[in-house]
UniProtKB/TrEMBL annotation:
It is an enzyme of class 2 (transferase). One of its GO terms (biological process) is cellular response to phosphate starvation. The keyword Nucleus does not apply. It comes from Acetobacterium bakii. It is found in: Membrane. Keywords: Kinase, Membrane, Phosphoprotein, Transferase, Transmembrane, Transmembrane helix, Two-component regulatory system. This is histidine kinase.
Length: 452
C-alpha cells in the first residue's frame, strides 16, 4: 500500500505542476497577444500630416502626394467639414455618408463611428478633417475606470494568480484521490495474486477492464494451483507406492545374495557375483530412499524434530559410522572441529543432518574411484555454524558449479543423482544453504551453512 500511496502522491504533484504550467503559459499567451495586437494598429498621428498636406488654393482643395500616400496606407476615405457643417472636400467618400452635419452629429461620430465606419478626426484650418476606415475593420470603444480601480489592478492580478494556483492544486488533489480510489482495488488484487487468493474485483468504471482481466487471471491461477496440487499429490503417492512395492522383493534379493556370498560351498567367482548383486541391490534401496525423501522435502511432508546438537560430536559420529562399515583403503576420513563445537549449540533435525552429511561423503567416494582423503570440519562463524566436507580428489565439473546456485534443481542432477538435491532441501528447511566449490590445491568442498 505504501508504494501505491507513493504513486498517487507523485501523480498529484505531476498534475499540479502541469496545471501551474498551463496557468503560466495562458497568462504569457494573453500578455503576448495583448502586446502584439494592441501594437498592430499604431496611433495614427500621421493624421496631422495628412491634414497639413490638404492645401486650400483659393477655395480649391488639393492633397499633396505625401499626404495621399499616407492616406492610402491607413485610411479608406476622407472628407473636410466646414464650420457650418457642410462637406467642402472629400476623397473616396462612400455613398451612404451625408454631406451635411449638425454640431450634435459631429459630437456623436468624432470619437467612434459614422454610419458604422470607424473614423478619426483632426482640426484643419478650414474646418474638421474626418478620415474613415472600412466597416468592421477596427474595434473602437472607450473603457473608463476610476483611479481606485486602477490602483487595485496589481493586487487583482496577484489574487487571480493565487486563485488559479488554488484551483489547480484542488483539481490535482481531486484527481489524485479519484485515481487512488480507482487503483486501490487493482493494487489489492495484484498483491493478492501471489497469495493465490480468489479475486472478485468490481468490473465497472474506468478500471473495469483491468479488474475483469485480474479476476480471470485469478480463476486461471487457482485452477492451475489445484491441478498442480493434484498432480504433485498423485506423484508423491505413486513414488511412495512404487517404493513400497519394490522394497519387499528387493529385500529378498539382498537376503539371498548375502547367503550366496557367504556360502563356502560356492566357488569364489560365484561368491563375488553374489556380492555384486547384494551391493547393487543396496544401491537401489538407497536410491529409493533418496527418492522418497526428496519428494517429502519438496512438498514439506517430511516431519522435523528440532533439538540442540553438538556439531563436533555429530560429524565424529558420522565419520565413525563410515569407518565401522568398512571404508576402503584408498579412502580416509579426518575430523577438524573447534573446541566450542563440542557443546550443544546447533538447532536442527539430527537425522536429516546426518543424512545430508552421509550423502556428501558418499558423493566424495563415488566420484573419486582412485581414492581420496576426506575431511570433516565444524566451525562457528559470525553467520552461524558451518560444516564442511572436503576432499583432495578431482573436484566438481565446471557445469555443476555453474548450476549449483540455480533455483532449477534438475540442473544439479547430472551424474550426482539425488544426493546433492537432498542436501540443498535439508538445508533449506533449516533456514540455511549449501555451497559447492573447487579448491585451489585440488579437490572440492561442500559447505553446510546454518544461519543464526
Amino acid at each position: 500500500m505504501k508504494s501505491l500511496r507513493k504513486i498517487i502522491f507523485r501523480s498529484i504533484l505531476l498534475t499540479a505542476a502541469i496545471a501551474l504550467l498551463l496557468v503560466i503559459i495562458n497568462m504569457a499567451f494573453i500578455t503576448n497577444w495583448m502586446l502584439k495586437y494592441s501594437g498592430s494598429q499604431p496611433p495614427k498621428y500621421s493624421i496631422s500630416d495628412i491634414s497639413d498636406g490638404l492645401i486650400n488654393n483659393n477655395g480649391v482643395f488639393e492633397l499633396e502626394a505625401a499626404a495621399v500616400s499616407l492616406m492610402d496606407e491607413q485610411y479608406a476615405w476622407a472628407m473636410l467639414i466646414d464650420r457650418d457643417g457642410h462637406v467642402i472636400w472629400n476623397k473616396n467618400l462612400p455613398g451612404d455618408i451625408s454631406l451635411n452635419y449638425t454640431l450634435t452629429d459631429v459630437a456623436s461620430f468624432s470619437r467612434w463611428y459614422l454610419n458604422d465606419y470607424p473614423v478619426s478626426v483632426w482640426e484643419h484650418p478650414d474646418g474638421l478633417l474626418v478620415l474613415g476606415d472600412p466597416k468592421n475593420s477596427i474595434w473602437k470603444y472607450n473603457i473608463t475606470s476610476t483611479e481606485d480601480t486602477i490602483s487595485h489592478v496589481p493586487g487583482l492580478l496577484v489574487g487571480f494568480l493565487i486563485l488559479n494556483v488554488v484551483v489547480a492544486l484542488s483539481l490535482a488533489l481531486f484527481l489524485g484521490l479519484w485515481l487512488y480510489r480507482k487503483l486501490k482495488p487493482i493494487y489489492n488484487g495484484i498483491t493478492a495474486l501471489p497469495k493465490k487468493e480468489p479475486l472478485t474485483l468490481p468490473t465497472g468504471g474506468v478500471t473495469g477492464e483491468v479488474s475483469r482481466i485480474l479476476n480471470e487471471t485469478s480463476v486461471i491461477l487457482n485452477q492451475q494451483e489445484t491441478q498442480l496440487a493434484h498432480r504433485d499429490q498423485t506423484r508423491t503417492e505413486w513414488i511412495a507406492g512404487v517404493s513400497h512395492d519394490i522394497r519387499t522383493p528387493l529385500s529378498m534379493v539382498m537376503g539371498y545374495a548375502s547367503e550366496l556370498e557367504n556360502n563356502p560351498n560356492l566357488p569364489a567367482s560365484e561368491q563375488d557375483q553374489a556380492r555384486i548383486i547384494r551391493q547393487q541391490s543396496q544401491r537401489i534401496k538407497a536410491l529409493i530412499s533418496d527418492l522418497n525423501l526428496a519428494s517429502k522435502l519438496e512438498y514439506d511432508m517430511q516431519p522435523t524434530c528440532l533439538t540442540m546438537v553438538s556439531p563436533g560430536e555429530l560429524i565424529r559420529s558420522v565419520a565413525v559410522d563410515f569407518i565401522n562399515n568398512g571404508l576402503a583403503a584408498p579412502y580416509s576420513l579426518s575430523i577438524n572441529a573447534t573446541e566450542d563445537s563440542n557443546c550443544p549449540s546447533l538447532l536442527c533435525d539430527e537425522q536429516l543432518i546426518r543424512r545430508a552429511l552421509t550423502n556428501l561423503i558418499d558423493n566424495c567416494i563415488r566420484h573419486n574411484e582412485q581414492g581420496c582423503a576426506i575431511n570433516l570440519s565444524a566451525k562457528n562463524s559470525f553467520d552461524g555454524w558451518v560444516i564442511k566436507i572436503s576432499d583432495n580428489g578431482k573436484g566438481y565439473p565446471p557445469e555443476f558449479l555453474e548450476n549449483s546456485e540455480a533455483l532449477d534443481e534438475p540442473q544439479l542432477l547430472g551424474n550426482h543423482g539425488l544426493g546433492l538435491i537432498i542436501v540443498r532441501r535439508i538445508l533449506k528447511i533449516h533456514g540455511g544453504r549449501a555451497r559447492f566449490e573447487n579448491l585451489t590445491a585440488g579437490g572440492c568442498c561442500a559447505s553446510m551453512i546454518f544461519m543464526q
